[in-house]
Amino acid sequence: MLNTFDKIRINNIYKMLLEMSEGRFSFQIERNDIDDEIEALVVLVNLMAQEIQQTLRYYSQLNSPESIFQFVQMIFILDSNFQIIYVNDDVMNHLIKDKKEFIGQSFIKILCDNSTHDWKRIADKLLINNYYQIKKKLHFQFDKDLTKEAICNITSIYHKENKNQFILVTSFQSKTQSQFIEDGLSLTSKILSRNTIQKKEKPNILKNEKDIKIIQKIHDYILQHLETPLPSLRILAHNFGTNEYKLKYGFKQLYNITVFKFLLDERLKKASLLIENTSLSMKRIAILTGFKSMPHFSKVFKQKFGRSPKAFRNMSGLH
Amino acid sequence: MNDINHTEHANFWIKNEILHCTYKEIKLLDLATAQSIVRDRLQFQQEVSYPVFCDIRNVMSWEKSARDYLAKNGSVLAKAVAIYDDRYIAEVMSKFYLNKNKPLVPSKLFKNYHEAIEFLNNFL
Prior knowledge:
The complex is a heterodimer. Chain A is an alpha+beta fold. Chain A has helices at about 5-20, 35-65, 90-95, 100, 115-130, 180, 185-190, 210-225, 235-240, 245-255, 260-275, 280-290, 295-305, 310-315, and strands spanning about 25-30, 70-80, 85, 135-140, 145-160, 165-170.
């Protein structure tokens, strides 16, 4: 027989699974220190919700460019004592609480334990700086045991005339792929001007599970072999039992980036990590990340990061 | 045994050519923490690649962004990784990571220290 505490824990898993069955994946069950079978289930349910949430968001972004827009989810306005004086309807919808449960409540009270420390640090800065602004992931207490995470933009607003300070907390839907962030502005402007130009439908190359698995394997292979030259697409495709057409368009369909742009991006990311955190020579880093010539390495590095590898290292403080 | 390098989120030291990394108590391992751990590790080992013994028993939970980051960047200058975690929840926590995130270098979960070291000795 389960004791009362374990019954509550099992009940939390039911609740979470029911939320997931209705398509809500942004909740997490609050963890505790117990190391047993029930806790292992809690861990697994949390991990699965995180994965499904990101996967669904990723596919919705790939298939519908409009969904790249960031939607405001929640808005809180706090007074200088960090008490909530306004919440929008989205707050009630997301945290499923009544408006009167929020108004007059201290903001820290609706946060989970693991976010209160972050909030206290931010709150100190908010009081000192009139126009302070920061982005931070906060975990909200959804009900007694479920939590919900949201990336929040926290801004301190100072009203000069009546000398009042307000704090605005807004949360946005997060993005998944780094290139969405990098290309954010150009993508958004393209979407905005799309009302006159209709894009051609993307070819649907990946029709079955086997094709997707092959492309994923090639993706992993590229990541594992950044320092060696990549064979031609024809040979690469052949080595993994597919053809050049499927690899070329299937990779783009699955990861929203071409094979060679992906390879270059990953090489540069690894190079930046090594430049920033080791004293390895630039030549050695170029070799370790698969660049054959230093001038080419410097050129593409500068194109991506806006400064040469040497200047990048000087900025990091490691000379 | 070399000196222990204490950083904000983990301790590092080298023993018998194996880099040992013990995570300090982390309630929620987020992306920023994962980045900081990788940065500290790379700064500690400089240009030398090592097999890495990674004790994560003090990590309570981790975010997807942190798992993705560690799977890729956690293997830079690492020949192989032995994740050491003897908790019951390690069965799902670490196995989920190994199956789903597929780290770029050979990586395995161990509940026994000596077995972990034996695995890493193959990559010296």
